[in-house]
Amino acid sequence: MDQEVHGIDGLLRDETVRERRGALCRRIETAGITVHDILCCEDRTAFVGPGYEDRHTVVLTRSGGYLRRISGEEFFVDPTGGYLTRPGDEHRVAHPVGPGDRSTDIRIGEQLFADRFDGRPGTRRFTVSGATDLHHRALLAAARRGADPFELAERLHRLLDLIAASAGHWRTDTTARPSTARVHGDLVRDTCAALATGTPALRLSLEDLARVVGVSPHHLSRVFHAVTGTTLTRYRNQLRVRGVLHALEEGEDSLRTLSYAYGFADQAHLTRMCRSHTGQVPSAVRSLLTDRA
Known about the structure:
The protein is of the alpha+beta class. Helix content is 44%, strand content 22%. It is built from eleven helices and 13 strands. It has helices spanning 110-117, 130-144, 149-166, 178-195, 199-202, 206-213, 217-228, 232-249, 255-261, 267-278, 282-289, and strands spanning 5-6, 12-13, 23-30, 33-40, 48-52, 56-63, 66-70, 73-77, 81-85, 90-94, 102-108, 125-127, 168-169. It has a seven-stranded antiparallel beta sheet. It has a four-stranded antiparallel beta sheet with strand order 5-10-7-8. A two-stranded antiparallel ribbon has the order 1-2.
């Protein structure tokens, strides 16, 4: 699948950019910042690499999911957030749920990165609010529409500010022994991977999801909250809403179809949940994410 390359400086090119093996992307550029909209075609379930980072990056995921191991720290990445990298970081990637994940790779200068992200506690992985995620997707839609370069630059700086201000770091369970914490971390990783496989997984009951990862519903619920600081219900709802946003971004216009696909009781339920997570109703989201000027 060929992707356009959008230059934020106003130069539009239609060549395909292959930044790394198995990835196609389109690019936005402004002073000191490069944004790659990446569609990953890699399907290897084992870790590939190592590679070594040469820039400061902020990476956000819009669909699908994959495993990242950065300088020894391993985590599952999905549309609820992203991660940070710095020059010299060793990184590996694996795709246990298959290809097709979509990410936004924002490469920024050292000072811009330090001003927003250095000195923050916690791990490399972070979560973002639904409103920040919507701003992120709206920026890319504006670039596809050929928005004014000044507007795109302002949107991009605003996105970085929102990420830095609202990003909540993924917790680790400090109450458990190291060996137990590793087991708990693996369980959360497997649960996230199971839910990232597509809409059927997001329609599973708690009992069915627990069966998929091989534990009791009570144990799964308790461990997930201890490790992540959020409930499985809220996390699942975040994924469902992000899935709806991505479908609208890709051109789906039937809210009834999306309500059924993502397991909402009806269109009104979808509307309430979308407003709760993003601050906008689906019809407004659809307008923000359209490619048409």
